[in-house]
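Homework-ish question, so no full write-ups if that breaks the rules, but can someone show me the predicted structure for this set?
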Amino acid sequence: MRSIVNAPCGWSRSLVSHRSALNSTCFSSTASLAVHANNRRLRKESSDLTATATKTRIMSGMRPTGRLHLGHYFGALLNWLEYQDKYDSYFSIVDWHALTTKYQDVKGIGGNIREIALDWLSVGIEPEVSTIYVQSAIPEIAELHLLLSMITPQNWVEREPTLKDMVKMLAADEGEAKEKVTYGLLGYPVLMTADILAFRAGLVPVGKDQESHLEFARDVAKRFNYIYGVEYFPEPQPKFTSTPLLKGLDGQKMGKSYNNDVKLADTPEDTLKKVKQAITDRTRIARADPGHTDLCEVPWPLYKIFAADILPQVKTECESATIGCVDCKTRLAGVINEFLRPVREKRAELTKDPQTVEKILAYGNAKARKVAQETLNGVRDIMGLSRWV
Ligand code: SF4
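A: Not a homework solution, just the prediction itself:
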């Protein structure tokens, strides 16, 4: 998940392969036989449960880090819009994941959940079609995380390369890392696995270069099935996505933390102000200098995305210096504002009644929770826990 998240949610993190460790489990053969016998019924129930879905289930999520920008739209949401017609789509606002790195910074989480839901709904994610829910509203995910953590070897999570990157990001030195790298952060790949397996998702969106991202979840699913002699969890497969790199206004990748983004919910005036700051052709010093579209760092690539039909005109005007960069960017801002107009109008409509988002999330939470409960009940049975519930 891009997300899995793609930056907003951590789903686009790199996960290591754990295939080699799959057969290293030690467990009593007697216990194993008993478990296998007990689980024949569960295999049938599992296949019945899977059979109720007429479409393949796909699961993705985003961290509630604030309002979404154009990079999120082209990197994830555009694909989600396609998925919701083709698949049984589960889209999660993964607020527990936000705590893995920002556990002290909790003030904005509630508001950010609302904002992200508004963005999803505004672009056309339909709550009657897709299941939209908040991770922390599904306590079964937390219990599944706990149970999966029991079977996940320590070295699988410790080898996770993104953890090393995050340690570098979070801590200036080893001493600081000891404080900031928490048990929760170490366990985030298991939590991500629980996010996917709770809904028995068959597909998880990942970029073409990110197939390994899902291997951890797949390997935990395989290990669970192997240990208990069941075919309970499907092995989630990657759904490859094409995610064009959207440049931020400074020429770097668009990202909220870089302060170089255009948010879906920005006003037209803010959008114009931001786009006017975009880096153009650095060799074009004076207004009378001819520009070079191939050296134009931000506006030209954005024109390619938002206004491919007028590219020849922009190129001619730029290279003949009949238009200045300020005017060119003003026109581009107008194109982007027009593109986002229906999204912003929908957002305005949704915010008229403050209860709308809450009701939609409550509906999605209930729907998601029912599925997660069914999954967890099976897991409890398989792990010998159900009689105590
Ligand atoms: Fe870029 Fe437009 Fe300026 Fe040419 S005129 S360098 S395309 S902003």
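Now go work out the reasoning yourself. Hint: Residues 6-246+354-388 form a domain with the Rossmann fold fold (CATH 3.40.50.620).
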